[in-house]
Design goal:
With 310 residues, the protein is α/β, with parallel strands linked by helices. It has two domains: 186 residues, Nitrogenase molybdenum iron protein domain (Rossmann fold, 3-Layer(aba) Sandwich), CATH 3.40.50; 110 residues, Nitrogenase molybdenum iron protein domain (Rossmann fold). The protein has a four-stranded parallel beta sheet with strand order 2-1-3-4, with helices on both faces. The protein has a four-stranded parallel beta sheet with strand order 9-8-10-11, sandwiched between helices. The chain has a three-stranded antiparallel beta sheet with strand order 6-5-7, with helices on one face. It is globular and about 60 Å long.
Length: 310
């Protein structure tokens, strides 16, 4: 049975009446922060924006610099934001490097194991400037798609509540209560998704790019490979040949929102397997707000099972 996502999430959270400005980097982070705040903070990259070809506008840079609290994943996800973050005078929270994070690193075989925050070093390669970049986050080192593990989302809710309370101590109890309620919602969602995906856990599949390791690790899914090694990179002929071989026993090939589906379509045709619906790991096509995180996670589960469970 699929989890019924209640749009009451937005109204169940108690809004904190305070003059505190918060800015977030991407829609999944905005959604989690909104559940704790009881109102939706500003987001630099709304759903549907491409984080790898984004140009930070001067007004957005000012919003980041002037906010009382800036909450972002870190430069592994949005390297073009790092210089602006370094120029801030207010508080900042970098989610990918909080204690207790269930982190994973990319590996050459794309079959990494999860580990604790203290087992990896804070290293990253990136290019950045104040207003944009022409690269993408490199697929070695820390995998930044950590919101796709609901255990991380629940950890972050507590961390967000704590940091908000430091900036706005008058509303500390409200933030703590909202975080506790949101954790219960995500825990219930997690259980329902696990039950939904269990019957297809042993069915291998191919995705467009290597962004789903947290999701597949958490739910014990069988990922056969990814067409593209990087979010903004074009696969080589040798890589495509290797993935075609890996896709031989696969059940489905899944394209991804915001990326040309032709490679996935060709891969499915060449391998003689089904073409699934487009996955949206960052919430493309969804309305921003507290409900986005649950809709994103349930959407991934539904898209996978629709093709795999045949």
């Amino acid at each position: 049975m699929r989890y019924s996502i209640s749009l009451l999430m937005a109204s169940l959270a108690t809004p904190a009446i305070a003059d505190v400005t918060v800015v977030t980097d991407i829609a999944p982070v905005q959604s989690l922060v909104a559940q704790v705040m009881g109102e939706t903070p500003e987001v630099i990259l709304p759903p549907g924006s491409d984080p790898h070809r984004f140009q930070l506008r001067p007004s957005q840079a000012r919003a980041v610099q002037n906010a009382d609290l800036a909450i972002w994943l870190g430069p592994e996800m949005t390297p073009w934001l790092e210089t602006t973050m370094e120029g801030r005078s207010g508080e900042a929270l970098e989610l990918l490097h909080v204690d207790g994070l269930h982190a994973r690193e990319y590996g050459d075989d794309h079959a990494e194991h999860a580990h604790g925050h203290d087992e990896h070093e804070h290293e990253h390669e990136h290019e950045h400037d104040d207003h944009g970049h022409d690269g993408h986050h490199h697929h070695d080192g820390l995998d930044p798609h950590a919101w796709l593990d609901p255990a991380n989302a629940m950890l972050w809710l507590d961390v967000i509540a704590t940091r908000l309370s430091e900036v706005d101590p008058a509303n500390a109890e409200t933030y703590a209560a909202n975080a506790a309620a949101a954790k219960q919602d995500i825990d219930a969602l997690d259980g329902a998704i696990a039950q939904q995906l269990a019957p297809v856990a042993d069915k291998p599949f191919v995705v467009f790019h290597d962004a789903y390791g947290y999701f597949t690790d958490h739910y014990g899914l069988t990922l056969a490979g990814s067409i593209s090694a990087g979010d903004a990179s074009s696969p080589s002929a040798a890589r495509l040949a290797g993935i075609r071989q890996d896709a031989g026993p696969a059940t489905c090939v899944f394209p991804e929102e915001q990326h040309d589906p032709k490679l996935a379509e060709q891969m499915a045709s060449d391998a003689g397997v089904r073409l699934g619906g487009a996955l949206a790991p960052e919430g493309a096509g969804l309305e921003a707000g507290p409900q986005l995180y649950a809709q994103l996670m349930q959407g991934l589960a539904d898209t996978l099972t629709e093709c795999l469970d045949r």
